[in-house]
Amino acid sequence: xxxxxxxxxxxxxxxxxxxxxxxxxxxxxxxxxxxxxxxxxxxxxxxxxxxxxxxxxxxxxxxxxxxxxxxxxxxxxxxxxxxxxxxxxxxxxxxxxxxxxxxxxxxxxxxxxxxxxxxxxxxxxxxxxxxxxxxxxxxxxxxxxxxxxxxxxxxxxxxxxxxxxxxxxxxxxxxxxxxxxxxxxxxxxxxxxxxxxxxxxxxxxxxxxxxxxxxxxxxxxxxxxxxxxxxxxxxxxxxxxxxxxxxxxxxx
Amino acid sequence: xxxxxxxxxxxxxxxxxxxxxxxxxxxxxxxxxxxxxxxxxxxxxxxxxxxxxxxxxxxxxxxxxxxxxxxxxxxxxxxxxxxxxxxxxxxxxxxxxxxxxxxxxxxxxxxxxxxxxxxxxxxxxxxxxxxxxxxxxxxxxxxxxxxxxxxxxxxxxxxxxxxxxxxxxxxxxxxxxxxxxxxxxxxxxxxxxxxxxxxxxxxxxxxxxxxxxxxxxxxxxxxxxxxxxxxxxxxxxxxxxxxxxxxxxxxxxxxxxxx
Lengths: 252, 259
Fold this sequence. Notes:
Strand content of chain B: under 5%
Radius of gyration of chain A: 21 Å
Distance between the termini of chain B: 24 Å
Strand order of the largest sheet of chain A: 5-6-7-3-8-9
Number of strands of chain A: 9
Largest sheet of chain A: 6 strands, mixed
Shape of chain B: globular
Order of helices and strands of chain B: HHHHHHHHHHHHHH
Shape of chain A: globular
Distance between the termini of chain A: 41 Å
Structural class of chain B: mainly alpha
Structural class of chain A: alpha/beta
Largest interface: A-B, 32 and 28 residues
Order of helices and strands of chain A: EHEEHEEHHHEHEHEEHH
Helix content of chain A: 25-40%
Helix content of chain B: over 70%
Radius of gyration of chain B: 19 Å
Oligomer: heterodimer
């Protein structure tokens, strides 16, 4: 039984304004009369209540910086909520920052193996998937080349092929519908659709409202770290586009 | 705690493949390959031994294995401390994508360093075997728990250094200096008896000296290390491990925000 439940979840980042804490900063600050501003607090999520049940496909929309990706990372267990409770049942696979997390000196094939293991595969479960992954990426002989020589498009192809080769119970996707070149994009879209129908629970962030309507059962509209509205796709998209169309002065 | 260790174990294929990759890529395209990691301590040993034997009338055949063993341990510790500082930064891309236990990134460092230590240890064993004949088997078997203790120490040290470096960026610059100081305070290049003779009793309480004894007594003299030496070694590893566990308990949820 796959489900995700967030109860009154809030998240505060502490961001240092000048990178990390240094001894110099400490020594200088204690001698200065005027105190430098210390850590800046960013309130990324506020009182989020969500219940996503098995079989549901949920989209998240909102402006840039509204907390969509942060919410996804909380759902995926990468960010732990500062307050509130997160309960998740089922194994999660997440697709964010596709071209990150490669070992540059290792070949494409080796990276398939590392990524596979990170996603919880074992040598036995991974072996039959290797060939299909290689095939789907269409990288051919380039797979035997270290990935530091790859173009960013090739990296995206590889990452996408690996990440979508497993069949997770819960699938969390951040804006990867635009992966690779045009030919690969349509193929990726097809694979995505296939995965979304196979997974038992899907949460996806996208700005592509048309795909969201097509893929999702209902939507979450994030605004300044709050859940502004949830509901059926058409209804939320109508509200969202209406609000976005308004001039900013009135929107506040 | 048990859950955490189980989670580390579940990701074993991942971190082990990173360890083997580190080994391969480090010497990728070089002629000697892994041999380079042996060259450093062996060359140091050859040079220092020659000089010391001339200056202080040491016996080259006993001093060289003594020094090589000391350097092997020291290089292991240094690798765990210095590379440990970078362990979480190196794993950043993974940390940002997957909620795996953080301890696996320092473990990658400690295991890599351990493999280098084992290779140097093998060279020393062969050297001693040639010079003195095969040693005392039960004493050599005591190296197994010693190496395990050392792995725990190195892993925990790398965790602590990694966490400190994430919080205070100066750590990675400060640490080489401190390690240099510590090197001379630890009987790596000189026999520990010298400290006793010169009345530097305080330095005898250096727990790192216990680890050196845990290696040197069985390998060079064919004797089991005394219980007090083992106790100091294991308690030190335990203390650092507790510190690392406490650090991880606090930071496991937050570290991603500091990267």
